[in-house]
Protein: Protoporphyrinogen oxidase
Amino acid sequence: MDFDHIVVGAGISGLGAAYFAARAGHPSLVLERSDRIGGCINSHRFTTCSDFWTEAGSHTGFNSYGTLLSILEDIGQMPRLTAKEEAPYQLWRGGQLAKITSALHPLEAAISLPRLFTTPKAGASVSEYYGRGLGRRNYRDLLSPAFQALICQPADDFPAELLFRRKPRRKDVLRKFTMPTGLSEIPAALARQTDIEVRTEQEVIAVARDGQGFRVRLGDDEELGCNYLTLAVSPEIVARLLPDDLPAAKAAVGTVGMAEIDTLLLAFRSADLDLPRLAGLISVDDAFYSAVSRDYLADPQYRGFAFHFRPGALDAGTQLTAACRALGADPIKVVEIAHVANRLPALRKGHQIVVDQLDADLAGGRLAVTGNWFYGVSLEDSLTRSRQEHARLFEAGAKTH
Ligand SMILES: Cc1cc2nc3c(=O)[nH]c(=O)nc-3n(C[C@H](O)[C@H](O)[C@H](O)COP(=O)(O)OP(=O)(O)OC[C@H]3O[C@@H](n4cnc5c(N)ncnc54)[C@H](O)[C@@H]3O)c2cc1C
Structure:
């Protein structure tokens, strides 16, 4: 075989998979379609702003991210963990900034709260679970916008158990962290590890079995063989790439939708913005779900923001006007603009049936599937799946397919 282990996709799931495999003695080749690694981790550098960056996607790691932290420890990155300075989130509602607490109905919350501890989370949607647990008006006015800001898509039908998973916190680690030049340091550090090779601009378009291993076809028709294969891409691409002898898994995974997000990145000179420091905006009724600021790591010259818009809601010019309105800024003062297309899985109630079907078909084989659509969409959820898949592949001993 050309390679022992090939991974398709160089997001955190794929690079995590390569890391676990390499540590288990299986050198790994990671094939990435785009010209950069990291996927949803994308610390965007503004070219005209002397190395100033803003996160276009993932922006925060937490001390509850045990798998991520154990990897960072192992690859010597813990000293790079950098505290995020506290700043408030604000609501953007009816064209005005407002405090989060202004949307809270305290009496309703107090009456409803006991139900939060008695309502089962499993099998419930976000609106069912939190609407019951904090009251319908609290859900409508505060939680629904806050959750959709968090996952950059309508959150009502998302499975409640996949929105937040309880994970133990490490008291010896910063509660919330970034890295000095952004979270993109993490995929970059993983890609530098011994026994991990990453090739960018390599789109995998088909996968076929080859004895107990696999053949992977690239966009330029080159073919590579491997003993073990990991697919670390979004569900619709997994559905396309799964070998034809797994029709039930292909069909099940093909039902999982994706949410498209139009992200607008803006950099301003700090002196040109008359806006108190803020963590970000939760939009209640505008065309964007949320905005995330770079204020958590103050820069002497610039301030940056990522506005996450509903797909196709506004054209580029109107997006800029809407974002500047929310920041109270004059569009003429924007130093640099960038656009990024982000995507996240749009999980729905009953998602576990999809995962169970896939896992049943993968059992006992040398094919792994990972991503941000198994335990939830966070970095830790993605790495949890990668770790479990690689324990299955490399520790349990693979057999036939
Ligand atoms: C705006 C935003 C904010 C977020 N904020 C946070 C946060 O603060 N904290 C947190 O924990 N999580 C956050 N997340 C979620 C988290 O960043 C993602 O869920 C996670 O990074 C996904 O990693 P992944 O590897 O599963 O997928 P991706 O990052 O999507 O990576 C998949 C990779 O596969 C590549 N690929 C696709 N098809 C092919 C192919 N055919 N051949 C080769 N390569 C292919 C893609 O180009 C991509 O690089 C955020 C996400 C977004 C979008």
Notes: The longest helix spans residues 379-395. Residues 155 and 391 are 32 Å apart (CA to CA). The chain has three domains: 3-40+184-256+348-395, 44-59+258-346, 102-163. The two ends are 15 Å apart (CA to CA).
